[in-house]
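User: Fold both of these, please.

Assistant: Here is the first one.
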Amino acid sequence: MDFSSKLLENAVHEMSQLPGIGKRTALRLVLHLLKQPSEQTTRLSESLEKLRGEIKFCNSCHNISDVELCEICASPKRDESLVCVVEDIRDVMAIENTGQYKGLYHVLGGKISPMEGVGPHDLTITSLIGKAKLGQIKELIFALSSTMEGDTTNFYIYKQLEGLDISTSTIARGVAVGDELEYADEVTLGRSIINRIPFEGSLKAN
């Protein structure tokens, strides 16, 4: 792709680094921005700079937040004895949109995947087990996608909880195997949480 401007080429290159954005789509987006008032581009640039410079991760659940303790963890209306284990913020958003869950979350930041070089210590599993040992958690809900990596992560955490008085469950298979939670419709996902099954039962099913 030949460019008449080095500035345009650089902008297209940076835009194309985003997931799912190819060179042609990046060019279309950059040209769109050029047609907009300069104030709009400035606001976009400033919001991205503030995002990178000021964003925080909740000290308790590791969710993305503007403050040290996210709104969900700080809410007195949430059930602190119930914790839903998810991969990232997109899963938190998907579950919250169902309006069916009133507990807390724990964001792992990924899944165990030896093929991609991601091990247990690359995730926030140690933090989760530490909270579990404090004795306030009564149930952990595994809500990772039903892939080999998700199942491996669930089982690893389950084994780390041996000897602790904590029940473990997994969302019902209303969400198809291999599906990511963010793509499940709200009704299906909500029912999957309400009708969750004991984790031990899911092991026998497999």
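And the second sequence with its predicted structure:
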Amino acid sequence: MVTSPNFKHFVPLPHYFIYMDFSSKLLEQAVEEMSQLPGIGKRTALRLVLHLLRQPTDQTTRLTRSLDTLRNDIKFCKNCYNISDTDICEICANPSRDKSLICVVEDIRDVMAIENTSQFKGVYHVLGGKISPMEGIGPSDLHIEPLVEKVKRGEAQELLFALSSTMEGDTTNFYIFKQIEDYDVTLTTIARGISVGDELEYADEVTLGRSILHRVPFESTLKNN
């Protein structure tokens, strides 16, 4: 309970503002590290850490070993920049995939979302983000140049833009379009079954699958903007 300087009555502090008095520095350190994860506050971090302490030692050991192996051994596909266990990911190495059809996405979550639809039979190119001047992300910070080189080498007959339909996504699409507009490549974008402003990873599989199947020429989206 604290006294407000402007009111005579007492104003209770919300419970999540209460200082956590840890009885162990090791516990405090673990909670601090866990709370760095997205969407994890101090109270949730404490609950997770205490849960791990209650688990058998071998289970916690497997978790820490798995995270350590992930951090040290994970690779990025040399061809598409997707996360992989090998230098070339399983999708790029699959002989049944159409290598001339390249789906341009922001990150690994979008690859997973599209793969879950079972509607796309081409390969991917993961940019690693979107152009966002407000966040200091420019074209040189993304894997755009390797994509342009693929087009110049004639490896792609069609580029399917599957970035989120946000201002940053549209800016990135347009930048790539200007880099390759003089080359013989078909440019398409997923149909707008995906609402404008929506992030791709949150789209349901049916809607996303239909957007892949009914993709439209990219130039037509420029006329509508």
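Residues 62 and 68 are 10 Å apart (CA to CA).
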